[in-house]
Design brief:
The protein is α+β, with helices and mostly antiparallel strands and about 170 residues long. It has helices spanning about 40-45, 50-60, 70-100, 105-110, 110-130, 145-165, and strands at about 1-5, 30-35, 60-70, 130-135, 140-145.
């Protein structure tokens, strides 16, 4: 996976290559990015207790919704991983709560199975996510973008440069 920089002014003129899979696609989808600028989140986590750090990070967070080329299969996979992750977390929490209420060590051990499933799905989901933030120059920095999208973006920039240079 690659890190790609897309100027927000150029978002309407992106190549028809899926940002996640690198496959040709004409479909566009709005993707919402959320980030905490700079090292602010690290400061919040180091200084504040966890609940306050979460609240401070929510307060300091910035969001941007950008329409990017995404293949339907990539969106479907992303949604499935997200649903599976959330379902495994929910089941794990229910079984863990039941083990505490009933005082059952067997249920406590059983709660580790959905927790493990959630861990695996969460890791796959995290790797499939496009992480992005807008920098000071109004450019979206995409992390985990497919290298083919980066190459297509570079080719598009070269073509625009050739046209404007002549």
């Amino acid at each position: 996976m690659a890190e790609v920089r897309v100027r927000l002014a150029d978002v309407d003129d992106l190549p028809d290559v899926c940002v996640a899979t690198g496959e040709p696609t004409s479909q566009r989808a709005p993707l919402r990015f959320r980030w905490v600028p700079g090292a602010q989140w690290r400061w919040n986590v180091m200084v504040l207790p966890t609940p306050l750090a979460v609240a401070a990070n929510r307060r300091d967070a910035r969001t941007a919704t950008v329409v990017l080329p995404v293949a339907p299969e990539a969106l479907t996979r992303r949604q499935r991983l997200d649903r599976g992750f959330r379902a495994a977390l929910f089941v794990g929490a229910v079984v863990l709560t039941a083990s505490v209420v009933l005082g059952s060590n067997a249920l406590l051990g059983l709660s580790m199975i959905p927790a493990g499933v959630a861990l695996v799905l969460g890791d796959r989901h995290r790797r499939s996510l496009l992480l992005g933030e807008v920098d000071d120059e109004d450019a979206l920095i995409l992390r985990h973008a497919h290298p083919a999208f980066g190459r297509a973006l570079d080719l598009r920039a070269d073509q625009i440069g050739d046209v404007s240079g002549t």
